[in-house]
Amino acid sequence: MIVKTRQAGKGVSYASPIGSRGVLRLPPEHAGLKVSRHNPSSAMAHCIAYYWRVSWDLRGRQPHLQETLPHPNIYLVFEDNRLTVAGVTTSKFTRILAEQGFAFGVKFKPGGFRAFLNSSASSITDRIVGAHDVFGADGNALEAALISSCGEEAMVAAVDAFFLRRVPEPDENVELADRLVNQILHQPQIRTVDDLADRTGLSKRSIQRLFREYVGIPPKWVIRRYRLHELIERLEAGDPLNWPDLALELGYFDQAHLINDFRAITGYSPADYQRR
Asked: Which residues, 6+ apart, have CB-to-CB distance to 180 below 8 Å?
């Protein structure tokens, strides 16, 4: 079971699968943690990154506090016999794992869920909605199918079949949104939206419109979050850091702005985090 699941300062939210980039607290080795991923059918590969399942077993042990930095992805999540859609969350994920349980879901590529909404992706940012709110009675039917499924493979098959009946029409903006987000992730030289515009040949305004409509959050947010992910990796490595130079490298005006942003999203100063 999950004793408590929350997003700092917001209501209920779901963390991305454990083991992804940006995890602040990994479960202890005795948690019996199991993580698996499954590729979607090729017809949905342009929208869906993968199907995933996370399970844990902390029976007879202390609960574990898991914290994760957010990613620019929308998720379909099945947990505690309930199927929901989780929009992009702008704050840190905080959840307490206790006893025994699991979560199963779908990670959509940036922009990949837009075809299933009657509005922009930003309309569900920082929100959790029932699958029936997006898919109607078919969402309830999928929830029932997952409740009655016997095992992980059956869940994967049920969800894959569900989306194969709903393959969206081709939309070049879905591919573009995913490509731009991945460009930000893999090119740390991109520190500002202007940098992204210069590298892609797109106007700054068109990039901002695309991200609002298809990804759900501004491009500046994605850049800052991925740069903070890089900082966490460096802190985890334990290497000495030149903070003034690092702040400029990560696209911040100065060291103070970097530290304040890090504390605002993680709840810790970089020094406190490294000591932990």
From this structure: 110, 196, 200, 207, 210, 211, 219
Indicate the DSSP class of residue 46.
T
Q: From start to end of the chain, where are the E strands? A: 2-7, 34-38, 48-58, 64-68, 75-79, 82-86, 93-97, 99-108, 128-130
Q: What is the pLDDT of residues 30-58, one digit of tens each?
A: 778 889 999 999 999 999 999 999 999 98
257/251 Cα distance (integer angstroms): 10
Asked whether the beta carbons of 253 and 234 are under 8 A apart, the reply is no
Give every CB contact of residue 139 below 8 A, 6+ residues apart in sequence.
83, 130, 131, 132, 133
What are 257's two structure tokens? 């702005």
The model's pTM is 0.87
Sorted by where each starts, the structural domains of the chain and their CATH numbers stand as 2-164 (no CATH), 172-275 (1.10.10.60)
Question: Are 261 and 228 spatial neighbours (Cβ–Cβ below 8 Å)?
Answer: yes
pLDDT digits (tens, 9 = 90+) for 234-271: 888 877 888 888 888 888 888 999 999 989 888 888 88
